Amino acid sequence: MSTLNPARVAREFPSRYRLEAARCDACGAVSFPPRLVCPSCRGRKFKVVPLQPEGKVLTWTVIHVGPSSHKHEVPYALAVVELADGVRITCQIADVDPAQVAAGMPVRLEFRRIQEDGEAGVIAYGHKAVPA
Amino acid sequence: MRDVAIVGVGLSRWGEVWDASLRTLWTEAALAALDDAGLDRVDSITVGSMTPGLFVGQEHLGALLADELGMAGVPATRVESACASGGVALKVGFAEVAAGLADIVLVTGVEKMTDVSGDECTAALAAAADAELEVFYGATFPGLYAMMARAHMARWGTTREQLAMVAVKNHRHGALNPHAQYRQEITVKDVIEAAKVAEPLTILDCSPITDGAAALVLAEIGVARKLAKGRPIVRVAGVGQATDRIALQSRADLTTLPATTLAAQRAFKMADKGPADVHLAEVHDCFTIAEIVVVEALGLCKPGEGGCQASSGRTALGGELPVNPSGGLKSKGHPVGATGVAQAVEITTQLRGAAGKRQVKGARVGLTQNMGGTGASTVVHILEVAS
């Protein structure tokens, strides 16, 4: 079952194409992607801010049994990355031997192809992290 | 609030049960529990099931299964909370009896997982993670738990061998359980050298894909005393449930499970007990690292000491605090929606003193912990022999 419905993919463009995040007016916490309620203070007013694309690997794995959407990429490194403004994201670590990935490794987000729905369907983009 | 007891338990066949459908498995478990209780009627039915829509293209399980049991007319409700669906179905059934909405409730859980391909099964299970923030980028559940494992190893010095010992222990227990899906013992070397799934986890760190159903009959304690037939009465002494941020990345600490801690605190408070009062536990070892983090989160050991619980023998049968005497999800099997109910079946069987070769001697207080996703939903029950 593909989850790459065109409207669903397009809805995520602001965060996945432009790294748009939201800074809570009340407490300053940055949410990525933007949401309606701040998870830190339940504030409801935000300003759109660009996400800082530099960060470091907090924890990681190398996936050998992948989902059908990413099967062609195994083995691939997947990590939780903490960015400079405290936001954490889950993404692949690309352009590096997966065996070389380690906690604390400095990385930078890049705009990359993430999934495609067959040869004629939607291509979905997002970010992967690469060694900084 | 009225006191509630478990008066009947039942399991269907578990494993890769090619010749049985979801409805057949469920009915096997329901009939076993009703026969065990000596009842042929109930006031209400709850069904824990994670995603029968994705696994077999069937929703609306409440009405379907009441009908299947010849009980059309009885209120029946499906409860969903990912892999914690069964435990939450028990909580809902408990609440109905405690509140006086029903005197007798049939609490069930079911999952039929082998009618789809491995890829479809992975996708169905992944639906319990964050679709946009995790699954879109290639995360799988073994991958998410593997990242928890790496973080736990980095922070506390937990070793690869300690992870493996959880699987070794639970297979040793499962070998004593006629109901377990995998009844062979395994070694640390077997686990470490098995096919890699998501480093550092191998296939033997992961619970299997299982078809199965489990059922309990709950009754108000006065009704339960009339049905006891000389058996110990098992009372539901404490119930606790909690949630957490769903995506692993959103947790402040990647090595703890705050929802499990919160749920346990609530259940212990209700039962007027603490971790030191527990004689045995059935916990959600969907991956080896899960049991390690869960025993810490429940307060059954100190933070950071989860890794040595299985390797020291403390949580093995014969140890100070046996954990997963049934074999756990790892060896007994993990039909996701059934698991939370099956844990209570095991604890009830143990508290009745009827667990055969895997009996925990003198068990009077037991705990179940059932969680969904990477721990964003947790439900804890404390069961005890009523005086």
What does the model show?
The complex is a heterodimer of chains A (132) and B (387). Chain A has helices at 6-11, 13-18; strands at 20-24, 30-31, 46-50, 54-63, 76-83, 88-93, 106-116, 123-131. Chain A has 132 residues and is mostly beta strands. Chain A has one domain. Chain A has a 5-stranded antiparallel sheet with strand order 6-5-4-7-8. A 3-stranded antiparallel sheet of chain A has the order 2-1-3. The longest helix of chain A has 6 residues, at 6-11. Chain B has 14 helices and 11 strands. Chain B has helices spanning 22-37, 52-56, 61-68, 85-99, 118-126, 141-156, 160-174, 188-193, 221-227, 258-271, 288-297, 307-311, 328-332, 336-351; strands at residues 4-11, 44-48, 76-79, 104-111, 196-198, 201-202, 212-220, 234-243, 280-282, 365-372, 377-385. The longest helix of chain B is centred in the N-terminal third of the chain and has 16 residues, at 22-37. In chain B, 64% of the residues are buried. The mean pLDDT of chain B is 98. Chains A and B meet through strand 4, strand 5 and strand 6 of A and helix 5, helix 6 and strand 5 of B.
Number of strands of chain B: 11
Total domains of chain A, how many?
A: 1
Helix residue percentage of chain A: under 10%
Secondary-structure element order of chain B, N to C: EHEHHEHEHHHHEEEHEHEHHHHEE
Structural class of chain B: alpha/beta
Task: Please identify the structural class of chain A as seen in this structure.
Answer: mainly beta
Molecular shape of chain B: globular
Number of beta strands of chain A:
8
Q: Tell the overall outline of chain A.
A: globular
Q: How confident overall, as mean pLDDT of chain A?
A: 95
Strand residue content of chain B: 15-25%
Q: Average pLDDT value of chain B? A: 98
The separation of the N and C termini of chain B measures 18 Å
Question: For the largest beta sheet of chain B, what order do the strands appear in spatially?
Answer: 3-2-4-7-1-8-11-10-9
Helix percent band of chain B: 25-40%
Number of helices of chain A: 2
* Quaternary status: heterodimer
Number of domains of chain B: 2
Low-confidence residue ranges of chain A: none
CATH topology grouping of the largest domain in chain B: Peroxisomal Thiolase, Chain A, domain 1
The number of helical elements of chain B comes to 14
